[in-house]
Amino acid sequence: MAFEKIKENTDELQDRAKEYIDANIAYYKLYGFKIAMKSTTLMLKLFLLGIMLVIVTLFFSIALALAIGYGLDNFAYGFLIVGGIYFVLAILVYYVQDKIVEGPILRTFSKMLFKKY
User: Fold this and answer.
1) How far apart are CA 100 and CA 104, in angstroms?
2) pTM of the entire structure?
3) How far apart, in whole angstroms, are the C-alpha atoms of residue 68 and residue 61?
4) Do the Cβ atoms of 112 and 43 come closer than 8 Å?
5) Can you tell me the distance from the alpha carbon of 30 to that of 82, in angstroms, rounded to the nearest whole number?
6) Distance between CA atoms of 30 and 34, rounded to whole angstroms?
7) Phi, psi of 66 (to 5 degrees)
8) Alpha carbon distance 64, 34 (integer Å)
9) Whole-angstrom Cα distance, residue 102 to residue 107?
10) Distance of CA 28 to the CA centre of its chain
């Protein structure tokens, strides 16, 4: 009799442990899905914003090159000056790229992953 009671308690304990493990697995699957979706939508938003900024920059660059070209009476010089400005900016971005890109991305994803609920 005592052994049957112990066996029943052990079976119940095993069932409860299995339910607990299944619930944890379901929770972490859902949590992983949430993180994946947030990061995917963030990347998509940044991609679309980047495309819009490239288009705006392209048109402003052409307008600036034409304005400088009108001022110098030579459109080639205008485009060369604008190209030189972008070359200098590219060199500056190359030297500070880790501070610009790595830090904010780590901060954003750290907030997303380690948020306490």
Assistant:
1) 7
2) 0.62
3) 10
4) no
5) 50
6) 6
7) -65, -40
8) 44
9) 9
10) 21
What's the pLDDT tens digit per position in 68-110?
Answer: 999 999 999 999 999 999 999 999 988 888 777 777 777 777 7
DSSP assignment of 40-98, as one string? HHHHHHHHHHHHHHHHHHHHHHHHHHHHHHHHHT-HHHHHHHHHHHHHHHHHHHHHHHI
Give the SS3 label for residue 117: coil
Residue 114, SS3?
Answer: coil
Q: Which residue has the tokens 């048109």?
A: 59
Let me know: does 71 contact 81? Beta carbons within 8 Å. no
CA 73 to the chain's CA centroid: 45
